[in-house]
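Progress report, Aim 2. The chain analyzed during this reporting quarter is listed below.
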Amino acid sequence: MKKSVYIETTIPSYYLSRPSRDIIVLAHQEITRVWWEKRLTLYRPYISQVVIEEIKRGDESAAKKRLELIAGFEILEATTEIEKLASRYMGVLNLPAKAIRDAAHLAFACMYHIDFLVTWNCTHLANAEIIRTLGAYNLSNDIPVPIICTPEIMIREEEDE
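Predicted structure tokens for the chain:
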């Protein structure tokens, strides 16, 4: 059985965005494209309504393309428990108010026992301190923790040979 992956908003955004002039962002965009095209088929992809709402923002034409890109992914149902957990994560992880959607991404991935949460958000999600604190909190509350990583971490070296 395929492992599950929660696709956070930055992934389809990087996949479809115009090449950046920032060399690091450009590298992340290319890594995302390689991961999407060569590795995503190995997983069962999931999103949430939070991802959909975030993807709808910005340029209407770009938003439409992002929505089309994720159209076949299973949408995880929002629940009161997920909402409460996201709220708890805000305090436990000491996240700023603007990061409520990031806390929601974590809550969805954890409550649905998703194997991986893939993101380029290294401030509030793929961040060593966040991951450490989340792991300790979830362990003490018997909540599973997905592997939170970037697409780069999910690409196997032998594929580049």
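The first strand starts at residue 3 and ends at 7. The chain has a mean pLDDT of 95. These observations will guide the mutagenesis work planned for the next reporting period.
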